[in-house]
Write a structure and sequence with these properties.
- By secondary structure, the protein is of the alpha/beta class.
- The chain starts with a strand and ends in a 9-residue tail after the last helix.
- Strands 1, 2, 3, 4, 5, 6, 7, 8, 12 and 13 form a ten-stranded mixed β-sheet that branches. The chain has a six-stranded parallel β-sheet with strand order 16-15-14-17-18-19, with helices on both faces.
- It folds into two domains: 276 residues, Glycogen Phosphorylase B (Rossmann fold, 3-Layer(aba) Sandwich); 183 residues, Glycogen Phosphorylase B (Rossmann fold, 3-Layer(aba) Sandwich), CATH 3.40.50.
- It is globular and about 70 Å long.
Length: 497
């Protein structure tokens, strides 16, 4: 198949969170399975220098003239020679619009909308520029959501083959890009798309994610449980549960994978010592080194060391942990915490770390190498999310030998098996309350005292496999089924094998 992926992030070139890893992982796995994969990504001002260092150069051909309402923007493509059979990456270079960082809020909502509109138009024009008959046009999350909308409204067989299937993957339904109707009208979108029951109309506003859910030939999210949760009600559906439920069999969950070429404790240069499930001895060296690095001198060798890596936002359940930290530190447990986000949460963690410097270490920001050392040196990995579409942290923690403590939601429910079960590899709790998290921690302490039981739990986790090849096979099936459905509905739908 010829597959075009469109995203606001792509690792390692433009990365804020898990979206970048997921899109890069899927693209690589699809290419490894023999597909011709191209990826479209904005050339943000913040990454242009890195792109040049990575070998990106202006592509041939005339510049693009892209219109948003009455405004024309000139743009060009940057590309680099492909040395392997992997994905080919195209950067959309429009400095007036993509100056600044990946999610630059300096220009406010109008800038976000213009970015989304230019990205969608350019991506849909690229196959014609390349003389490349695309089979699948695959948009990722709200920032690329205008791709299936514009495909439905404007782009026909004159630009894309009639058979081209449009796909939307929802990585986090909480991010929808909702804007005033007149802001969308200024982009030149048809009035029928903005008036009820048009593609984009949403309770008197315009919702890019809603438009893509309705317009795409098929829709998925990044874990089976999150797919079920998002159609069950407003708590996880975020107001779009009805639109998703209306898609029926054309909406499903496909679990993300982990890139074990990068996340491999046997070869990870960020770790002070290598280890694996078959040769675990180096892990104790990582544990001792982490305590030394973060000054956790009050954590006795026989007490649990708990790690956290993530954004400090309500979604991640940090407020479930905060009321427990002081009591647990006084009990002798240690905490290695890395993250940034909500200023109030950062300040509370900083105060707790200052009050208990030998037991609680908090590092503000994100440091990839330190994150890896936390995975490789912690006994437990805390992920008490209120909701989690998929999550990658628990997958990394399992591979690095840190037993996850997770709430039973979304992808966490699909990837972590509670220690009470014969094949358990972590600790799962249900209620979003501090006492429920505390009970899971106390269960972990009890098993920790059984060294052979803990070793067996750790071994099961380190041998779990969530590879992208499995996920890519599921995406292939979704593409094929969407093509067959489109053909039956008279919309074409043939794809190359």
């Amino acid at each position: 198949m010829n597959i075009l992926l469109v995203s606001a992030e792509y690792a390692p070139l433009a990365k804020v969170g898990g979206l970048a890893d997921a899109v890069a992982g899927l693209a690589g796995a699809l290419a490894a399975r023999g597909h011709d994969v191209r990826v479209v990504l904005p050339a943000y001002g913040a990454i242009v220098d890195r792109a040049a260092e990575a070998g990106f150069r202006p592509a041939g051909g005339p510049p693009l003239a892209l219109r948003t309402g009455t405004v024309f923007r000139r743009a060009a493509w940057l590309e680099r020679p492909r040395a392997t059979r992997g994905p080919r990456l195209y950067l959309l270079d429009a400095p007036e619009v993509f100056a600044g960082d990946i999610y630059d809020r300096a220009g406010g909502p109008p800038l976000a909308l213009e970015r989304a509109a230019l990205l969608a138009q350019a991506a849909l024009l690229l196959p014609q520029r390349l003389g490349w008959p695309v089979d699948i046009v695959h948009a990722h999350d709200a920032h690329a959501a205008l791709v299936p909308v514009c495909r439905r409204l404007w782009f026909d067989a004159a630009v894309l083959p009639e058979a081209a299937i449009s796909v939307l993957t929802i990585h986090n339904l909480a991010h929808q890009e909702i804007h005033p109707l007149d802001a969308l009208a200024a982009l030149g979108l048809p009035a029928t798309a903005l008036a009820y029951p048009g593609l984009l109309e949403f309770h008197g506003l315009a919702n890019l994610m809603k438009g893509a859910i309705v317009a795409a030939d098929t829709v998925n999210t990044v874990s089976p449980t999150y797919a079920t949760e998002t159609v069950a009600g407003a708590e996880f559906g975020c107001g779009l549960e009805g639109a998703l439920a209306a898609r029926g069999a054309a909406y499903r969950g496909i679990l993300n994978g982990a890139d074990y070429r990068s996340w491999n404790p046997r070869a990870d240069r960020a770790l002070p010592a290598p280890f694996s499930a078959a040769a675990i001895a180096g892990r104790e060296h990582c544990r001792v080194a982490l305590r030394r690095e973060l000054g956790l001198v009050d954590v006795a060798p026989g007490r649990l060391l708990c790690g956290f890596v993530g954004r400090l936002v309500a979604q991640k359940g940090v407020e479930l942990l905060l009321p427990l930290l002081e009591r647990l530190a006084e009990d002798g447990l240690g905490f290695a915490l890395l993250g940034s986000g909500d200023g109030a949460l950062e300040e509370r963690l900083r105060a707790l770390a200052d009050a208990h410097p030998g037991s609680i270490a908090f590092v503000r920001g994100f440091d990839d190498a330190l994150a890896r050392r936390i995975y490789g040196g912690s006994d437990l990995f805390l992920m008490p999310s209120l909701f989690e579409p998929c999550g990658l942290g628990q997958m990394y923690a399992l591979r690095y030998g840190a037993a996850p403590i997770v709430r039973r939601t979304g992808g966490l429910a699909d990837t972590v098996v509670d220690a009470a079960l014969p094949d358990g590899d972590g600790f799962v709790f249900d209620d979003a309350r501090p006492d429920a998290l505390l009970a899971a921690l106390r269960r972990a302490e009890a098993l920790w005292s059984d060294r052979s039981g803990w070793a067996a739990l750790q071994q099961r986790g380190m041998r779990r496999l969530f590879d992208w090849d499995r996920s890519a096979a599921d995406y292939e099936l979704m593409y094929t089924q969407a093509a067959v459905a489109g053909q039956a509905a008279g919309r074409g739908g043939h794809v190359r094998g």
